[in-house]
Amino acid sequence: MNQDELKKLTISTASELLASKKLSSVELTQATLDVIEQQEPVINAFITVTKEIALARAKQVDELRAKNERLSILAGIPYSLKDVYNVKGVQTTGGAKILEGYISPYDATVEVLMKKSNAVLLGKTNCDSFGFGTTGEHSGFGPTKNPINIEYVPGGSSSGSGASLVYGGGVFSIGEDTGGSIRCPASFCGLAGLKTTYGRVSRYGAAPYASSYDTMGPMARNVKDVAIVLEHLAGQDARDATTGTAEVLPYSTLLDKSIKGMKIGMPKEYFGEGLDPEVRASMEHAADVFRSLGAEVIEISLPYTEYAVAAYYVIGTSETSSNLARLDGIRYGIEGEGDTWMQKIKDVRGKGFNDEAKRRIMVGTYALSAGYADQYYKKAQQVRQLLKKDFVRAFTEVDVIMTPTMPVLPPKIGENESDPLKLWLMDAFTVSVNPVGVPGLSVPTGFAKNGLPIGMQLIAPHFREDIILNVGYQFEQEVK
Ligand code: GLN
């Protein structure tokens, strides 16, 4: 299989080829590893390529298939994991220098499930360190480039997951989304990406950013593939007490339903000033497509939207300042120099964290500090409740909420270097979803004049991934 074929390969096609023995998993895996080797010097989508694991698993699947064993649809299919997931015996860095060389002693639940499905792990993908970023430029292992046009960012923080799928380095990838990190790179790379409901997929073994926001989910070339992977990831896990008991639906079999009569709400706050005109036009076109499919598209209001970025960052940085306290250079990753514990910890945190991580630790520590916690942290939690009310009310009026995924087109690499606040503001449409906990799916809607993709975000009530996957799929079928 050549790169052009790999770039388009979906789970359905790959699994048919494998099942009919027209292609072996070893052949598919080797072809993918070759493309990765050729592309990586420029794109930098992987931090670690697990070539030996990949080939060993592929061989094992081929042997099982030769014995006519009943196998999962994911069996033999190459995938990657964002480098926040622990994989036993493999380096896990979260994209941060401070964890360079840290070898995990156990598997994250996500990886346990993938292994059980006999999917083939290609490696761990690059990301903004600890998930702090919107562009993929803030990794301790160098920026990732967008293979569609290497002058542009692929989106972040699951940058390598997005970029590798664009160049054919795997059939799907599992990202992590705290405030848009799956949806943003999906949008900037022209992919489908699902932020799951908080509690739908186990967080066990995934390096934490903000524990009350973090969600795990698939990125793939189309909505159906996302649905298939979700079926394998979703469910309760005794190791993550926040996972929910809601039934895991056969998502990929529920995509064909007509969306006639469905109500889709476009929140007016997401279509105001600052929205790129090409993104706006693409959303209007998408709304027309929904109408042509028999859905009713109406304007709604989420009045607390303007406070979402502030509340998100106050709570997110607070939680992360606490989560990152464990990185003291003693238990994990690189070591600090010095004679005393204080000197060692200063050294390791000074050189191991990048500016963005330091900024967030400082903001979060400040927001939680005595005398300021009421003013910032508590206030932000109150806003969080108001954001939740906004969504609960909206879902009494409509079945699905539709917004642009990102307010702007992908920026050029380096474009926002001197303006961290601008980057935080780019998250305006994705960060409201995480404090509320509902699922959000990014689906490509078209391309801008410069050839870069645009994506829309579809949001449903808690544990109703089935609705947005259905709507996203129907849209995709109509425009393809
Ligand atoms: N861009 C957001 C942030 O920097 C989202 C990150 C994420 O989802 N991991 O916080």
UniProtKB/TrEMBL annotation:
Q: Which residues form the active site?
A: K82 (charge relay system), S157 (charge relay system), S181 (acyl-ester intermediate)
Q: Does the keyword Plastid apply?
A: no
A Gene Ontology MF term for this entry? glutaminyl-tRNA synthase (glutamine-hydrolyzing) activity
Its recorded reaction(s) are:
L-glutamyl-tRNA(Gln) + L-glutamine + ATP + H2O = L-glutaminyl-tRNA(Gln) + L-glutamate + ADP + phosphate + H(+)
Q: Which GO terms describe its cellular component?
A: glutamyl-tRNA(Gln) amidotransferase complex
Instruction: Write down the EC number.
Output: 6.3.5.7
Which top EC class applies here? Answer: ligase
Q: Which GO terms are recorded in the biological process aspect for this UniProt protein?
A: translation
The alphabetized UniProt keywords are: ATP-binding, Ligase, Nucleotide-binding, Protein biosynthesis, Transferase
Indicate the segments forming the Amidase domain, all copies.
27-468
Q: Does the keyword Nuclease apply?
A: no
Protein family membership: Belongs to the amidase family. GatA subfamily.
- Subunit notes for this chain? Heterotrimer of A, B and C subunits.
Explain the purpose of this protein: Allows the formation of correctly charged Gln-tRNA(Gln) through the transamidation of misacylated Glu-tRNA(Gln) in organisms which lack glutaminyl-tRNA synthetase. The reaction takes place in the presence of glutamine and ATP through an activated gamma-phospho-Glu-tRNA(Gln).
PANTHER family from the xrefs? GLUTAMYL-TRNA(GLN) AMIDOTRANSFERASE SUBUNIT A, TRANSAMIDASE
Protein name from the UniProt record: Glutamyl-tRNA(Gln) amidotransferase subunit A
